[in-house]
Design brief:
heterodimer, A: about 200 residues, mainly alpha, about 0% strand, globular, disordered N terminus, B: about 110 residues, 5 helices, elongated
């Protein structure tokens, strides 16, 4: 994985504040990352969501999330605190996903079966969260719609869209994580947005 | 991004995409500040995405936590065995012991 652009501004860095903030963030994160159980509890959910929707395969997402967290734990000394832990983990996950998608075993099983996210499973979670019936129906419909359109995108477009709009990463961070130029990332984002907007219809 | 500033004409889709991506022009931002329709379109998209993000996060939070501790412990054990320093130390200790053990008793 490439280095991720420092989030502190240049002026902050020049005045020393950025360095202090970065070092402080790193120290806090290293403490968090030292305990594997704490790391899993803090970061698993968000990572699992990203991997599930990026791959479109709920079963494989479990394996990839596990591999990503193990890789992150073993390489925690390399975390420099220049970005959030979530961004760092997403970067590792992108590489693990890439490795998984390249394997012959994955290609074989992808032909045999596909275990995309179960919308009924999602609906039961929403119901348990105490949303009113109307809210549940609306949320379920939105999730179904966005999930369906994400499945129609290419793997790259989907990943970039999720990094931008779910993981809230900047275009520069996405470029670093994926090793792509700004123009390529923008092109993928434009295509993905066009597709999602088109499907959401009345919205944009 | 080219844009017509008359009230009846709104930002083209590409300009709205640029705004959502975070690379909009100053011209687009001025238009958005003044045009409620365009702001509503942006807000509607953001609201849909927020619903998707919250719902999918709830779903993944409902999944049981992975138990990685046994995997980490096993990996640490194998790492210890495979560590060159440990291997060197064991080899050195064995060599030293065998050379002492093979010395004649009289010397």
């Amino acid at each position: 994985m490439g280095t991720i652009a420092a989030s502190a501004s240049l002026s902050e860095i020049m005045h020393g504040e950025g360095i202090k903030t970065t070092q402080g963030a790193r120290a806090r994160a290293i403490t968090e990352l030292d305990d594997i159980d704490c790391m899993v509890k803090t970061y698993q959910a968000r990572l699992l969501r990203f991997v599930t929707y990026s791959t479109g395969d709920a079963d494989m997402a479990q394996t990839i999330t596990q591999d990503t967290l193990l890789k992150a734990y073993n390489g925690r000394e390399s975390f420099r605190g220049e970005c959030s832990v979530n961004t760092w983990l997403a970067g590792i996950a992108v590489n693990v996903i890439r490795d998984h998608l390249r394997t012959e075993r994955y290609k074989f099983w992808k032909k045999v079966k596909s275990s995309s996210v179960d919308v009924q499973d999602m609906a039961s979670v929403l119901a348990a969260d105490g949303l009113n019936p109307e809210g549940q129906v609306l949320a379920k419909e939105k999730v179904k719609l966005v999930s369906a359109v994400l499945e129609t995108l290419s793997q790259k477009q989907r990943t970039i869209f999720l990094l931008k709009f779910s993981e809230e990463m900047s275009v520069e961070e996405i470029c670093e994580v994926l090793g792509m130029s700004v123009n390529t990332v923008r092109t993928h984002l434009h295509r993905a947005l066009k597709a999602v907007r088109g499907r959401l219809g009345a919205g944009l | 991004m080219k844009m017509n500033s008359t009230p009846t004409q709104h930002l083209p889709d590409e300009a709205l995409d640029d705004f959502l991506i975070g690379i909009s022009s100053a011209e687009s931002e001025v238009h958005l500040a003044a045009c409620k329709d365009c702001r509503d379109r942006v807000q509607s998209f953001r609201s849909d995405l927020q619903t998707f993000n919250q719902s999918t996060l709830l779903w993944s939070e409902s999944k049981p936590f992975l138990n990685l501790r046994p995997l980490v412990a096993r990996r640490s054990f194998y790492f210890l065995l495979a560590s060159p320093r440990w291997v060197m130390a064991v080899v050195f200790a064995f060599a030293a012991w065998s050379s002492f053990a093979s010395l004649p008793a009289s010397t």
